[in-house]
UniProtKB/TrEMBL annotation:
Protein name: Helix-turn-helix transcriptional regulator
Key words of the record: DNA-binding
DNA-binding keyword on record: yes
HTH tetR-type domain location: 4-46
């Protein structure tokens, strides 16, 4: 029942009626409420199982493994992240949750993505012998340059239906290379930046 509920929400959004959800799951509304006492509990289960659940903590360890070249770490991570997280179902749930103003997106960003962004920028700064920005918000914005591009790639492919012939495995390195080229410029002290 839980898997059907998640699939239903990914297709119809989190504001869909529980009566329609129960019907789609092939159960009574009463049985649905015996499994989830209220819609908030169901939405929390969606977050835990479908949004945050697939993220692998080992990815942080791999991103910090300085024995591996940074470009390889980022390419490996984003290829796996794309295949594991940025699926059609995950994106639809995430976007529907955002549109319904459910706290799923802000919670995921606060719990996982901020740490991911800071990790990526820390590794890029170290790789270039540069300091991290004093303001963590600035570091996060730098990290969004790469993460936002990869996320939008998935949105283009899974939501917009962009049927380009260029394989995702070939596009991700383009974004990683572009990010690594701009890092020295955006992390350089302001006095050293080109005018």
């Amino acid at each position: 029942m839980q898997a059907k509920a998640f699939e239903f929400f990914s297709e119809y959004g989190l504001t869909a009626q529980t009566r329609a959800l129960a019907e789609a799951c092939g159960v009574s509304q009463r049985l649905l409420y015996s499994a989830f006492p209220n819609k908030a509990a169901l939405i929390n289960a969606v977050y835990e199982a479908e949004i945050a659940g697939p993220f692998k903590a080992v990815w942080f360890v791999q991103l910090r493994d300085r024995k591996v070249p940074l470009a390889d770490r980022l390419n490996d991570f984003y290829r796996e992240y794309y295949d594991t997280i940025l699926t059609r179902r995950w994106l639809r749930l995430f976007i529907y949750a955002s549109l319904a103003e459910v706290e799923i997106a802000p919670t995921y960003i606060a719990a996982i993505i901020r740490t991911l962004l800071l990790t990526i920028v820390e590794e890029a700064a170290f790789d270039n012998g540069l300091e991290m920005p004093a303001d963590p918000a600035v570091a996060q914005e730098i990290g969004w340059v790469l993460h936002g591009n990869i996320s939008h790639l998935a949105i283009r492919r899974h939501v917009y239906g962009d049927g380009t012939s260029v394989a995702v495995r070939d596009v991700i390195p383009m974004h990683v290379d572009a990010f690594l080229k701009i890092v020295p410029t955006v992390l350089a002290p302001s006095a050293d930046r080109p005018k």
